Structures are given as C-alpha cells and as structure tokens.
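User: I'm writing a tutorial on reading structure tokens. Could you give me a worked example: one chain, its sequence, then its tokens, then a sentence or two explaining what the tokens reveal?
Assistant: Sure. Here is the example chain.
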Amino acid sequence: MISEKAISSSHPKIERRPLGEQVFGLVRRMISEGELKPGERLVEEHLAHRIGTSRTPIREALHRLVQEGLVERRKRGGYVVRPISAQEVEEVTGVRAVLESYAVELGSKRLGETALAELERNVAEFEKALAAGNQKRLVELNTQFHTMVYHLAGSKLLVRLISDLAETLHRFRIALLSDPKAAARSLEDHREMLAALKGGDQEQAVRVCRAHILAGGAWILEQLKEQDIEEN
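And here are its predicted structure tokens:
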C-alpha cells in the first residue's frame, strides 16, 4: 500500500481506486506542483521508496506520464521530468496572450457587481499570501483570478481552448510565483487590470492583460537563459 506520508496533507488521500491509478495521480501531482522539478531525474527505486509502493506501479506511471508529455525518456536510459523549453514558453505565451486578451475584451461587456467583488476578493487574498510568503496559495489564487477572467467571456469554446494549456500554465505559474519580485509584479498587474475593468476601460484592461502575460513569459525565458549559462 502507498505510505501515509505520501498521502498526507500535500497529497490528499485517494480511496477506492486501483493502486496504479493512485501512484500515477501522485507522481503527476508531484510534477505539477513542482515537488519534482523540470529536468530532475526520476529513479524508480527512489520514487517507490518515497511513495511507499513497489517499482511496478511507478514504472507504469512513468510510462503514462511520457505519453502525457510531462516526463521524457533519457537516451541513456531512465526518465526525467520534461524541462520547460524556450520554444514552449514563447509559443504558449503568445497563444495565451491572444486568447486571454480576447477573454478580457468579451468579459468586460458582461462584468457584473458579483464578478467584480470576486476579483477584488481574490486580489486582496493574493496580497495576504504574498506577505506571508505562501507560494502554494499564490499559485492557487493566480489560477483562480485568470480562470474567472476566462469564464467572464461567456464562451465555452474559448474556455476549452485555454483549458488545453492548463497543465503547462500551472508549471509556468509555479516557476514565476516562486520569485517574490515576480509575484509582486503579478499582483500589481492584477490590480491594474481590475481597476480598468471597474472603470469600464475595455482597451486598457486588454492592454494590461496582454502586457501581463508577455512579461511573465519574458521572466521565465530569462530564468531559462540564466540556467543555461550556469550549466555551461
């Protein structure tokens, strides 16, 4: 059985599911939440010990994660968490900037008092989490803010298109919000976008949204460049 440590507060308990499904879900979550970092080598024996299971379900989980694109096979054998590439950042950032800017454009026409109150509450909670240095909460709140923006558009197609990027965006957010300065910049952008929406300035809200997304992508690209320099 999977150890109690593996399904503690950081990994909610999963009941009445096959062992292989539980292990797959746990390893997938460990990657998505940044516990297993991009480029990190994944050793079956170590993961089995860490989770508290045999190597067989670990091997099966890694195979499935390769198919999902979260894990890569090494040429010399074994697995690694798929690194974030510069090309991926550029492509995803560009696509997201277009889709989310359009969501803001549509959503600004449908914005009501309830939605505004929810966005304001989110920004206030984000500020508290930033002051407390709670990165996990920052990621949750950041995701919630942008999800609210997506749904404001009232377009199922738009939401579906953006949802296809969810896994990658989650990894980006973990990287971005691990830096307090980048998180503070994100907070200011959210405040500025909210102010534009409250003031009925659709064009400004769209501009802020686009600049916010492109700035986040540029920050991640800069980190990748620095890592490459350090490794070389």
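What the tokens reveal: The two ends are 42 Å apart (CA to CA). Residues 1 and 112 are 49 Å apart (CA to CA).
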